[in-house]
Amino acid sequence: MRSPDAETLALKGLAFLAREPETLLRLLTLTGLELDDLKARAGDPELLAAVVDFLLADDALLTRFAEGEALDVKEVHAARRALPGAPEI
User: Fold this and answer.
1) Helices (H) and strands (E) in the chain, counts
2) Which residues of 34-69 are buried (b: 16+ CB within 10 A; e: fewer)?
3) Which distant-in-sequence residues (6+ apart) come within 8 Å of 7 by Cβ?
4) What is the pTM of this model?
5) Which of 16, 29, 31, 79 is most buried, taking the most CB atoms under 10 A from its CB?
6) With contact defined as beta carbons under 8 Å apart, do 30 and 54 qualify?
7) CB atoms < 10 A from the CB of 88, how many?
8) Is the pLDDT of residue 84 over 90?
9) From CA 45, how far away is CA 6, in angstroms rounded?
10) 46-82: per-residue pLDDT in tens?
């Protein structure tokens, strides 16, 4: 997956999280970000990588996101590999 496509997928993930206030609050708590910071950095590839990491860390959340976007979860994993800080395999 190309980086721009991965960033688009991650932005969709962020929009998905924004529709789930409790889940978004959990992301903010874990990252230490304030909502205004999150909004200001929404296009930052490193922040987008953190969003994808957050989705990948919770199977139920990942499944809801993937189903809502008509994605295979493998596409979310591919997006993570295309974003900054991906673990070496």
Assistant:
1) 6, 0
2) eeeebeeeeeebebbbbbbbbbbeeeebbeebbeee
3) 43, 45, 48, 83
4) 0.90
5) 79
6) yes
7) 3
8) no
9) 9
10) 999 999 999 999 999 999 999 999 999 999 999 999 9
- In one-letter notation, the amino acid at residue 21 is P
Q: What is the pLDDT of residue 88?
A: 65
Structure tokens at 62: 């990942």
| CB-based burial label for 28 (10 Å; 0-12, 13-18, 19+) | middle
Tokens matching residue 77: 């994993």
Q: Residue holding tokens 């979310």?
A: 76
Residue with tokens 């493998």: 74
**In residues, how long is the chain?**
89
